[in-house]
Amino acid sequence: MTVTFDQVHDRRSTGSLKWDFMTEKLGLDSEERLPMWVSDYDFQAPPAVLEALNQRIGHGIFGYAERNNDYYQAIINWYQQQHGIKIDQSWITTVHGVLPGLSMLIQMLTQSGDKVVMQTPGYGSFRKITELNDREIVANPLVNDNGEYRMDLNHLEQCFTQGCKVMIFCNPHNPVGKAWSQEEILALAELCERYQVWLLSDEIWGDLAMPGHQYHSALSLPERLQQRLVVATAASKTFGLSSLRISNFLIPNSELKAAFVRRLDAHGMDVYNSLAMCAATAAYQTSSDWLNALKLYLQGNIDILATFLEKELPALRFQPPQAGYLAWVDCRGLGLGDDVLEKKLVNAGIVPSMGIAFGTEGSGYIRLNLGCPRETLLEACQRMRTALTN
């Protein structure tokens, strides 16, 4: 297959959150700045997906649509072939995005004022949807062992003894890029079972495990540990389909699945986007080779950044991600406050996600989106050098 990941696409003036809305979201003039913040990549979707969408658009009719057997079977086959996970079709519930589904589950499984656990540093939108639903976040900080992250299960058990009802788990983890082992996930699930905590596992990054690393779904847990489990999945991060807004929640517990479907119906979320279903189906059916090529390209970007930082900015420390295209870079060796660090980078024309946005444990870190052509990455590296050596 022809790989075109080096091609630079101009995303300005396309309504791109990442490229067009730095002013509205961050208060920054976006004309000359490289956005390395929002976690979508600057590559076109797989050719087979674009072809399927073009054919669907050519039909010209976009009435109410429903999931057909091809849609379900594409998901089932993908997880069996890619990850060795056997999914029952009855588990699959389709939602307009992972965050809306998690928010509804929080509403269903907890009451106002209840506690919800998340591991930190962690994806800020988990905190946002929890607190906007009038629930309290209980942070379970990850242990940072010289750049290698691991779970603090003793602390997690203390969190559970406080009466937490739900845990939001990021597998693989954003922002630190950790692909959790089966042993770690099993130990986590055992604790959830002991304290009767619902485990909501966001596995949207699972398809992007880097070469030499493996993603382990929580669905590989023993059946006895699946009855308090929900796994959220999507083709969006994998294939660049985020704005098409479609995800799948895999729920082995039939009673919870039925209650969740009722909740979706109560919100009028029982009609599906025909283009989103078309794109996801085509991606799962046709694009495994494309994904393998993408992951090799992303690994190349990761290697370039690691070499650059080691040679040019040795005060910064970088543990390459095991999954995903996000670089979690430790800038604490510079001795700068978060505000000063951000100002230096922005003034040099590079816009990262600041680590402090992922919790206090992220202070002194930045998250860089490496899902871009090499030309963009090399320019970003030069701007970092300008920012942090002056």
TrEMBL record:
SUPFAM superfamilies: PLP-dependent transferases (SSF53383). InterPro entries: Aminotransferase_I/II_large, C-S_lyase_PatB-like, Class-II_PLP-Dep_Aminotrans, PyrdxlP-dep_Trfase, PyrdxlP-dep_Trfase_major, PyrdxlP-dep_Trfase_small. Residues 38-383 form the Aminotransferase class I/classII large domain. It is an enzyme of class 4 (lyase). CDD domains: AAT_like. It comes from the Bacteria. Belongs to the class-II pyridoxal-phosphate-dependent aminotransferase family. MalY/PatB cystathionine beta-lyase subfamily. This is cysteine-S-conjugate beta-lyase. It comes from Photobacterium gaetbulicola Gung47.
